[in-house]
Design brief:
The complex is a heterodimer. Chain A is of the alpha/beta class. Chain A has one domain (17-148). Chain A has helices at residues 26-40, 49-53, 57-65, 79-86, 115-125, and strands at 17-20, 45-46, 69-73, 93-96. In chain A, strands 2-1-3-4 form a 4-stranded parallel sheet, with helices on both faces. Chain B is an alpha+beta fold. Chain B has one domain (2-80): Glutaredoxin (3-Layer(aba) Sandwich), CATH 3.40.30.10. Chain B contains 3 helices and 4 strands; from the N terminus they run E-H-E-H-E-E-H. Chain B has helices spanning 11-27, 39-45, 68-80; strands at residues 2-6, 32-36, 52-55, 58-62. In chain B, strands 2-1-3-4 form a 4-stranded mixed sheet. In chain B, helix 1 packs across helix 3. The longest helix of chain B is centred in the N-terminal third of the chain and has 17 residues, at 11-27. The radius of gyration of chain B is 12 Å and the shape is globular. The termini of chain B are close together. Bound molecules: iron/sulfur cluster. The site of iron/sulfur cluster (SF4) has 11 residues of chain A, from helix 1.
Chain lengths: 150, 81
Amino acid sequence: MTEKPRNVCTCGSPKLMVYSCSGASNVGQLANDIAINIVESGRGSMGCLVGLGALVSTMVQNAKAANNILVIDGCAVKCGRKTLEHAGLTDFDNVVITDMGVKKTYDLKGDRGRVSDLTNKVIAKIAWVKPLTIRDGSTEEDPGCCGGKV
Amino acid sequence: MKIEILGTGCAKCKKLYQVASEAVKEMGIEAELIKVEDLQAMMDMGVMITPALYINGEAVSAGRVPGKEEIKRMLTEAGKQ
Ligand code: SF4
């Protein structure tokens, strides 16, 4: 029998679903790194933006089931925002990395030193999302009907 | 028609199975009801929130238990495609 992956309870709605444009530029890649940091901080789960763009039914339903959605776009083109709208989602928060003082370049590894500072800035914009402190046996709101035990 | 209920076997998943079975029975349609409880299988399908309901391979809801009438509407809709 295969062992169950740990801490992968799926039966509660995530407080926050994060999408990043993950675009082909410094800011697109920074958006991706920031999304990962937000997930690692326990504030939410990351969804597949490209799946939403392709209107994959599972991805659309995942997004619809989230309590809150944050879209991180690299630049003012806002592909992430447009992708969500294309999938029929309108109720979400949207941050744009170039609005935070980063100049867009096509250096995919550019400005990596700014990831943690930018992560903090994005987290400050979604201050209402508190990190889940305990995952196993969590008493946080909506830990899922398994009680967050799987 | 193929109906799949994805969930780790918790109360909400069981409820969804029950409501979907009742909807199928009341509509008198031919449908195969499948429970998917394997976490890896769910992840492979991209499911992040359960219970998830699939009709003919398409996700129609996730993270909630739709009411019987809603499921009937979903089944009718899927039947047209
Ligand atoms: S928002 Fe900007 S960085 Fe992101 S994918 Fe679109 S063009 Fe690229």
